[in-house]
Amino acid sequence: MRSMTGFGQCNFANEKYQISVEIKSLNNRFLNVNLRLPQELNTIEIPIRKLISERLMRGSIEINLTYRKNLPVLFEPNRPLIEGFLNVMAQIKQNYAIDGNIDLNTIARLPHAILPKMEKLDKELADSILEAIKMALDQLELMQEQEGKIIESNLNASLCKLEELAIEIEKLSETSVKDQFQIISKRVSELLKVELDSARLAQEIAYLAERADITEEVTRLKSHIHQFRQTLKQHRAIGKSLDFLTQELNRETNTILSKTPSIKIKEIALILKNEIEKIREQVQNVE
Fold first, then answer.
1. Would you tell me which CATH number, out of the four given (2.60.120.590, 3.40.50.1370, 3.40.50.12280, 3.30.230.70), belongs to the domain 6-72+121-144?
2. CA atoms within a 13 Å half-sphere pointing along the CA-CB vector of 38
3. pLDDT digit string (tens) for 197-229?
């Protein structure tokens, strides 16, 4: 099991380049990759996204990548801009009879007159960037696995409590019908002040008991707890499966609350709902 939150980074340097990669991961229902690349690295955006999707299944992933060349940077003149500037200055000089000459300093101070020379991304740099991302992903996954172990421990503790509460509800439900029979018999007798036909009363109580019977709900509740435990043992991405099982646990608990006439069972079911909510919060962070 892995958490969806984590952080990884890698700083790589050789005689030609310095590369820095930071990867952050947060909760998300799907895989959402936010990639920030310098413009000259756009050609490797698709390989980077493919690498991320092969390593991570879900989460909001933010990748910050910067690099710097250690070798001298080559520059080139922005010819269209400089020529356009010289042409317009010549027109101004001619039209308004203004004296003066344009020197090199004037051109150098012109914004964007000199630009870094655009070079094709060489294979060595591209491979170094991808390797740095892999190393950052290794750190990220390690952190996710460590947090995943904590979440798994918390979930197992909550499941143990759910099992105890489910067993307690099951025991109470076995005596609930008898108790309801006695309570209703007594109340009806007191109201009517007559002796009731036991067969007829038993028939009515059986009808009420059937409507209030929570045996199936308790059975399904215990089954979902077992499935939850089995799912925790799997190594694939299990977040969505656990989320579904959590919804089912909550559904069965709500049905128990609505059906049972027992105040004691209702009190335990409310504790059960509170524990399921704790599970739901934990599951939201599972990949």
1. 3.30.230.70
2. 14
3. 666 666 666 666 666 678 889 999 999 999 999
